[in-house]
Each structure stands twice: as C-alpha cells, then as structure tokens.
Specification:
With 293 residues, the chain is of the alpha/beta class. It is built from twelve helices and eight strands.
C-alpha cells in the first residue's frame, strides 16, 4: 500500500446506490476509485459516473488496480464476491461492508486469507453518504485503521472498533435488527388490524398515545422499495441471534414480510402505511385481490 494515501486506488464491488455513494465519498477525499462495468445496467453505469468512479471494465481490472477493495452488495452475494476476488489472486485489503452475520464475515475472511489478502470487517449504518453526518462505516480487524485513514476526508464517517473481524458485522446486525425489524413488525400489525376490522380504532389510539408509530407507519413506503434487499439481511440477523443461542424466529418472520413486498423493488411510488399492509396478504385463488379486501 502506498505511503501517500492520495495515491491509493480503491475498488468498489458492486456500486449500487450505497456502493456508488461510498465510492464517491472516497473520490471526494482525493482517492482514485475503480469499478467493473461488465454486465451492469445503464442505471448503474450512470450512477457510478455521477460519483466519479472509473470503469476498468472487468473484475480482474479492479483486482489488479486496487490496493483496497470494498465489497458492498446484497447479503446473499457477499461470499460469492469474496470467492470471485480470491480466485483472481487479490493480495491487498478486502473490506466486506455487507449486511451479514459475524459468522458470514469470518467465512469471508477465511476465503480471502487463503491467497494472502488482508481482511477487514465492515458495517454501514445510515443511507448513502452524500453529505456529512448521515452515514457511518464501522470497521474491525487488524487492518481497520489503515482502511480508515485511506477513506477519511469525504462525507462518510469511518469508525474503527478495537475488535477482531466480526465485530463490525455484529454491530450492524444489532442495529438493523431494531430499525428494519420493527418496520416489518409494524407492517404486519397494520395488516392484522385490517383483517380484524379495527384499523381505524388502532390508528386513533396511536395518534393519542404513540404518535411516533403513526409517523413510522407513513414512512413504510421506503421499506417497501428496499424490501428485496432486506430479505437476506433479516435472514443474516436471524442467523446472528441463533449463533448466540438466542431465538431468531422473529427476524425470519421479518424476512417473509419483506419477501411479500419484493414487487415494489426500487419503486419510488411504493405505498406506505395501511395501503402497503394490504399487500402482505396472499392473493386469493383465481384473482388478484387479497384476503383483506
């Protein structure tokens, strides 16, 4: 790794809305950031270009030209990405910044270290970091301080945990267990209230005693648009609890809630509140109506 951090090349695999913004934060800090545009959508190419990421066309280009690789992808693909990078012989620092369990992160570490790469565990809290004070990247592992120094200077805040690989992922799992888990629970409650015909009475009670819940229900449209990515995250959270000897069934249920909302993938007009909850009911045989109609 170069002594001057401005000379570092950082690779991003693969730049969705979060990955592109994290890469853009590094660009804002004066780093060269590369990615592979092979088989990626026009929207991904446009997003990467807007954030100043340099397309080197193929994954082997990213591996050969990067000192640090940031893996930011849906949870189910995390180990596949680690294996792909490993197969190309990467020997720099690999940062798994995905929403995965500590055990999944440690498996990624094992994969990368077989070819001599360094591994850093990461967990992102917040939305895409387009302005300071909105997003934190937690890092753990021996090389976490070096990665933090390489990324500092952009809108992304980087926090190093004095802990081995797995700790950053554990923090992410614990955090999202509440934020995304309670959104799934709320949607489920709204659906139940519709089914039992007490939705209006419940909303009136919330308005008087729990106004925060009323606001959270209105914001469920954001959860619907991201549900397709949160299915795997809920499953990773469930595995995290179970590995600790704790019940994981709640978050397996949350995964099913989000699975029923996958139809709203990236939909800016996804419904929220009670309208969204209607879509949790299975469709009736022979028609598109739900059992709540």
């Amino acid at each position: 790794m170069p002594d001057e951090y401005g000379q570092i090349s950082i690779g991003v695999v693969h730049p969705g809305s979060m990955g592109a913004a994290v890469g853009g934060s590094a660009v804002a800090a004066g780093r060269r950031v590369v990615w592979s545009g092979e088989d990626r959508s026009e929207a991904t190419h446009r997003r990467a270009s807007e954030f100043g990421l340099e397309d080197v066309h193929w994954l082997n280009g990213v591996v050969n030209q990067s000192d640090i690789i940031l893996s930011i992808c849906p949870p189910h693909a995390a180990l596949e990405v680690a294996q792909d990078v490993r197969n190309l012989g990467f020997q720099g620092v690999f940062v798994d910044a995905n929403a995965v369990s500590p055990d999944t992160a440690r498996e990624g570490k094992r994969i990368l270290e077989t070819v001599g790469a360094e591994f850093v565990d990461g967990g992102i809290v917040g939305g895409p970091p387009t302005k300071a004070g909105t997003t934190r990247l937690y890092l753990s592992g021996d090389e976490a301080p070096r990665v933090a120094r390489a990324l500092e200077g952009g809108p992304l805040e980087v926090i190093v945990l004095d802990a081995p690989a797995g700790a950053a992922s554990a923090l992410k799992m614990a955090y999202a267990a509440w934020t995304k888990g309670t959104s799934a629970l709320l949607a489920d409650i709204l659906a139940l209230a519709q089914h039992e015909g007490i939705l209006e009475a419940l909303e009136q009670e919330w308005a008087g005693s729990q106004p925060r819940i009323e606001r959270q229900a209105a914001g469920l449209s954001s959860a619907a648009a991201k549900a397709w990515r949160w299915v795997g995250e809920m499953e990773e959270i469930a595995a995290t609890f179970e590995a600790a000897g704790l019940p994981g069934d709640f978050h397996r249920g949350a995964a099913e809630i989000y699975r029923r909302l996958e139809r709203f993938k990236d939909d800016p007009d996804a419904p929220g509140g009670a309208e969204l909850a209607r879509h949790l009911f299975p469709a009736k045989a022979g028609g598109g109506e739900t059992s709540a109609d």
